[in-house]
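Notebook p. 47: complex prediction with magnesium ion.
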Amino acid sequence: MEIFAAQLLNGLSLGSMYVLLVLGFNLMLLVAKIIQFAYPHLVVLSMYVCWGVLRHTDNMLLVVLASVASCIVVNVAIEPIFRLLAKRHGLDINVSFVVSMSMALLITDVMSHLLNYGYPIAFPTEWVGKSIFSSGLIAFSAGQAYALFGGIAAVAAFFYLLYRTRQGRVLRAISENSLLSSIIGIPIIKTRVLSYAIAGLLGGLTAVMFARLLGSASPGLGDFVGMKVVAASILAGLGNLKGGLVCGLLLGIAESMAIGYLAGSWSNAIAFMMMLVIMLIKPEGLFGIEA
Amino acid sequence: MSPVLYYFLSFTGINILMCWSLYLPYRVGQLHYLTVACMLASAYFSGFAAREWSWPFALIVVVGILIGILICLIPSFAIGDAPCFTVVIIGLTIIFILKTAVENSPALGGTIGFFGIPQVNHLLPLTYLLVVYAGAVIYRIDHSRLGRAASVVFVDKNTAAALGIDVKRLGMFFQVAAGALAGLAGTLYAFLIGGLFPEFFNLGVIGTLMCMLFAGGHTTMWGVIVSVPILEGMQLLLPSAIASWRQVIYALTLIVIVLVLPGGLVTKRMLLRLKGKVSGGISKCNN
Amino acid sequence: MKKSSMLKVEGVSVSYGPVRALENISIEVDRREIVALIGANGAGKTTLLKAILGVQKVQSGKVLFLGDDITNSSTDKVANMGLGLIPEGHLVFSTMTVLENLQLGAYHNPQDFNDNLENVFESFPVLRKRIHQTAGTLSGGEQQMLSIARTLMSKPELVMVDELSLGLAPKVVSEIFDILGDLNNKGYTILLAEQNAKKTLEFANRAYVMETGRVVLQGLTQELMSHPEVRRAYLGSNV
Ligand SMILES: Nc1ncnc2c1ncn2[C@@H]1O[C@H](COP(=O)(O)OP(=O)(O)O)[C@@H](O)[C@H]1O
Ligand SMILES: [Mg+2]
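Predicted complex, structure tokens below:
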């Protein structure tokens, strides 16, 4: 029972990270009509940025700013590639996947060649933080608290932006019907760039929280997280934001339970196995495709 | 034969088979990475059967192909007509699961690798014989009713369904055919290279294959015959300092090709023009 | 005094790949006019409206709006200048509420939002009752009204309506035509593209008759209605 409670807490913190990534991924899918497979890789890149900044200063604000700025800049910088791609191929999400997968490979390989000689990086222990609460097996570290509460705040802000503001309305309009949106005078390209920037902002914040939660990162982390994030999006139904919220959390919890009850190297495989079974039974996702 | 040439020829043959096994399901618009899982499974099976059970090569080839077929057949009941991207992720997921299984099996060498696979005589010529045979079969499929139906499905599934094409059955057929090819490639890989590492079967190998397929041209089966030797050769000819960046080179090549040459090096239109020239030349001679 | 020309299309040609859809089309709409484009399905009416709005690329020719050359300008710029298109098929953002649809329509015109909303509700009282309803749950006629209202929220100089009557009951069509007539009296200039020639010719001041991408006839609607070719081909009467 204690293991269960402990892993549930773990799962919620981890899951809220997945939720943020699923939301950013789906936002670009809905508004820019691309599959940005390299999105989690960019987040890992921003974790490296955090790590680099941390070696010079321990000012939390600077770290967050650097992480967010780097993620926004890189994500927005690759937008013209996808725009050119759409010009060549039309809005074909499969082709965008081929390109973004190449970007993912590129980022991973560059990280493993150039950053920290390809070795995993470790964040300072005070960065991960001591346990702020513990009882028996249950321990809640500061890093977990940041991930959980930061994640909840970021998700709430995201949904507020999308459903309660003028820009959010425009983003939703383009995701529903981009031709009609352009006919009524909404600037499509500008709004698409905005969606990359918002995803970058979410990604930069996620990178900081993820660093505090995990305490380390490696070049291979992007592939790993990327597959889970994308699988969770498919489980939810591509483009389904509310479904993504549920599936991201469920994935985090399932993975933590597997870690809690099973031998180490199998836990990820178990998480994947569960996702696989659901995907095979419902290829269109649990909550329906909306992209 | 120099080892460099041997590896070049081996990898070229295997990669042509693997590219074809991606090419076939892409005829119906699916990126079927599951074939890499087929290759992994059949390679490990082949190595194990040869070393531990001393099975004869011919039997291993047959069972290897069957394993490839089986791995593609079972999911195909669910994903024969699934959206492309779902197929992608299911493929990646199964690769990951199989890889974890191998890494956790001491009998298969775990993360260290599986070695000591016995050699087979005249394997290289035999490999190319099998490549040519596989190519002939794919050519037949491409120019059959199935190939034409696939072209319709690629453009629009709904139109295809309206024309009475069973989109799911067709998808299943191409997926299973891809599995057979990948099973064959896996067996050949095990014997040609002689050693297996689970780390080989990662996103990188998929990126390499995608680069070869799209650079050569995904609209015909001939493109990869041009692109695979070039890209394989490049990797061997470049100085090792640059060759260690080959993942980056492949990724950049793929991005640039998709942006600049959407159809790849060899396109259908080019082949038609070539055909026109040849037959035009022949008719001129006849006059 | 010379009449002020609002929209001027000069020799515009448009192709979809190898297929020519518009061949050297010229039309003109003056301020406060109601002009109709009539022609059978596939004549090129929608293509012309899209070309004017910059949704479809123009290969040759010119589009002038209020004296400015807007040929191949970006759609959001053109819409911002005061060109409003109500597209075919009473399109609305169906997952959003009526209010949100209207807010989107006011994208370029957020000031005086409440006054505009009041004006629009005066023309379309049904929408006021449905203000928080999801647009996808409206009836076809209500969706067409919402689509028009959404365009009016941007206070366009010229309102272009594509296939106003398509798929709507005759009674609803008459009702919407009446509303458009009112709007015209209030000062709106209207360009209608319609297959339904009879109703449209009765409603408009002038019309262009299109066939396979060309303008084959043009003139005042009274004259066109008595033109034997128009009567035979579009009004369904034997002369
Ligand atoms: N997106 C398109 N791609 C190719 N051809 C098109 C497209 N849209 C319209 N067409 C062709 O252009 C011509 C004019 O179509 P359209 O402008 O829709 O006519 P209308 O609105 O008068 O019915 C038709 O022959 C139609 O087939
Ligand atoms: Mg039309």
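Notes: Chain A touches chain C through 17 residues (CB under 8 Å). Strands of chain A lie at 121-122, 131-135, 138-141, 216-217.
Next step: compare against the earlier run before touching the bench.
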